[in-house]
Automatic annotation (TrEMBL):
Naturally occurring in which organism (per UniProt): Fervidobacterium thailandense
Source organism superkingdom: Bacteria
Organism classification: Bacteria, Thermotogati, Thermotogota, Thermotogae, Thermotogales
Listed name of the protein: Transcriptional regulator
SUPFAM superfamilies in the record: Putative transcriptional regulator TM1602, C-terminal domain, Winged helix' DNA-binding domain
InterPro entries hit by this protein: 3H_dom_sf (IPR035922), 3H_domain (IPR004173), HTH_11 (IPR013196), NadR (IPR026043), WH-like_DNA-bd_sf (IPR036388), WH_DNA-bd_sf (IPR036390)
Limits of the Helix-turn-helix type domain: 12-64
């Protein structure tokens, strides 16, 4: 990794944007800070400015991503118990999808959204492991297993393949 130096803040901000455009993975704020020889707080400020300028920079637990809007998204309703979380996420990512979040309806708070951000089997395993070791319950337990996922795919054909695989899994369950 190399440092870009402090430089002009506008130039740095657009270099960050270019890095996010080219990246196939989330980039941590700390990593960007090291590249540019600035603090993580400076990177947070740069990201906020890029957002103000209309760029859709998404914060995930694994770092920043640029949402180019070129992918297909669907919100899909499902119902199952906690024991099927791994299978459901695995089916989606194995068929080329990315699970952005889980959405449940709470009787007092209304809609609750939790970010998931998984797009590989490794991500699924890390997520399920974190859920198991965190001593917490998954959000789907609030709603008796009924929940929504925002799923993203590179194209409509892949999305249809994902939806068909989920449907097939539900039928065979």
């Amino acid at each position: 990794m190399f440092a870009f130096g402090g430089g002009d803040f506008v130039e740095r901000r657009y270099k960050i944007l270019e890095i996010l455009k080219r990246s196939k993975r989330p980039i941590k704020g700390k990593e960007l800070a090291e590249m540019f020889g600035v603090t993580r707080q400076v990177v947070v400020s740069d990201i906020a400015q890029l957002r103000e300028e209309g760029y859709r920079v998404v914060s995930t637990r694994d770092g920043y991503l640029l949402d180019t809007g070129e992918r297909v998204r669907r919100v899909v309703a499902v119902k199952h118990g906690a024991d099927e979380i791994y299978d459901e996420l695995k089916i989606i990512v194995e068929n080329g999808g990315r699970v952005l979040d889980v959405i449940v309806e709470h009787p007092i708070y209304g809609e609750i959204i939790g970010r998931i951000d998984v797009e590989s089997i490794d991500d699924v395993e890390k997520f399920v492991s974190a859920l198991a070791t965190s001593n917490t319950k998954p959000l789907l337990e609030i709603s008796g297993g009924v929940h929504l996922h925002t799923i993203e795919a590179p194209d409509e054909q892949t999305m249809e393949k994902i939806l068909e695989a989920i449907k097939k899994y539900r039928i065979n369950k």
